[in-house]
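Tokens as discussed.
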């Protein structure tokens, strides 16, 4: 490997997620090789809601966590690292469970170390069953419970406002962090000022709305089942080719959900039993200094550091700002022209200053 004299630079990768967002970065000193074992990648991400609840703090940025590479999938050339790397001619599925959508993609590994993916093995699966779907389903439940309480539209408050506050703020902060799908869950009581009677309880109380545990269980089971169907769809498509997927790698903010993980493991066990398979759900944990939340941003930093020897990223779309040009006969002959806004005697042609062009590296 040639010696590279690189200038000092800060490498940053940002993953904007609807459930959680994270920023990973590293400082590359002048003359230090981007694959140096002493290089450290730091990650800053939003606290998951359950951490905020336990610590008593509001949503805030986490103290940067240090991840020193090479780790399990780093750039080390040692024999031990090679033994732990993914073997060639194996297949695995990435299940990206985010806030808005969930996507499942199955890849074939063409090179074990450093890891190289050859292509998608089967057509990807995706749907709008991210963690936001839980909020949407909870909102529909609230609308049904409060349908006959129009008197809440008074004093500047609205019924719609009460429902939005319950579905977004209360559900996100008070229910999601602690909910576990089991038979021992208690009903939840949420505050709704000026509510005259509780439509969710047989013992109605003013200013209180009871959410029965059974309703929440149905919501979680429905959304988690949709996600597991995306996973099993990939597994079935792979099995039809006479192949077996070894691992399902769970990433994304919704991937931190304990109910979702439990449901996926149950669905995977059923698939394995029916198809004589041994596929396993892989979830990065804190002891590996990476989680499902920061997997994308951390991978982005490593990808940026390894551009010379890593895979080429090709743009899947083109974009750029509109930038009209003055009309010139020699340059724009035959093109449609438009009048100037301030001086209608001037002619322009519509143009775009491309920042990225499709199929370009």
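Sequence:
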């Amino acid at each position: 490997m040639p010696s590279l004299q690189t200038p000092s630079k800060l490498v940053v990768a940002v993953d904007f997620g609807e459930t959680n967002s994270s920023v990973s970065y590293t400082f590359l000193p002048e003359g230090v090789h981007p694959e140096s074992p002493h290089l450290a990648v730091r990650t800053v991400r939003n606290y998951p809601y359950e951490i905020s609840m336990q610590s008593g703090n509001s949503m805030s940025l986490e103290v940067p966590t240090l991840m020193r590479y090479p780790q399990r999938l780093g750039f080390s050339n040692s024999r031990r690292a090679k033994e732990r790397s993914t073997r060639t001619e194996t297949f695995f599925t990435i299940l990206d469970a985010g806030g808005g959508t969930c996507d499942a993609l199955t890849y074939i590994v063409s090179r074990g170390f450093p890891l190289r993916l050859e292509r998608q093995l089967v057509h990807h699966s995706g749907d709008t069953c991210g963690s936001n779907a839980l909020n949407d389903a909870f909102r529909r439940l609230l609308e049904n419970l409060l349908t006959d309480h129009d008197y809440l539209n008074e004093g500047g408050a609205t019924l719609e406002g009460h429902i939005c506050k319950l579905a977004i703020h209360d559900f996100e902060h008070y229910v999601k962090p602690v909910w576990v799908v089991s038979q021992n869950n208690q009903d939840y009581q949420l505050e709704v000022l000026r509510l005259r009677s509780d439509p969710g309880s047989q013992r109605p109380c003013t200013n209180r709305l009871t959410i029965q545990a059974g309703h929440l269980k149905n919501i979680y089971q429905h959304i988690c089942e949709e996600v597991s169907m995306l996973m099993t769809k990939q597994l079935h498509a792979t099995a039809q080719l006479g192949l077996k997927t070894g691992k399902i790698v769970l990433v994304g903010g919704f991937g931190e959900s304990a109910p979702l993980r439990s449901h996926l493991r149950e669905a995977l066990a059923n698939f394995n039993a029916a198809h004589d398979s041994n596929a396993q759900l892989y979830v990065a944990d804190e002891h590996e200094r990476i989680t499902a939340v920061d997997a994308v941003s951390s991978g982005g930093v490593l990808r940026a550091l390894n551009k010379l020897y890593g895979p080429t990223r090709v743009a899947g779309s083109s974009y750029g700002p509109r930038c009209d040009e003055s009309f010139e006969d020699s340059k724009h002959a035959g093109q449609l022209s438009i009048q100037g806004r301030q001086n209608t005697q001037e002619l322009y042609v519509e143009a775009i200053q491309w920042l990225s062009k499709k199929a370009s590296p």
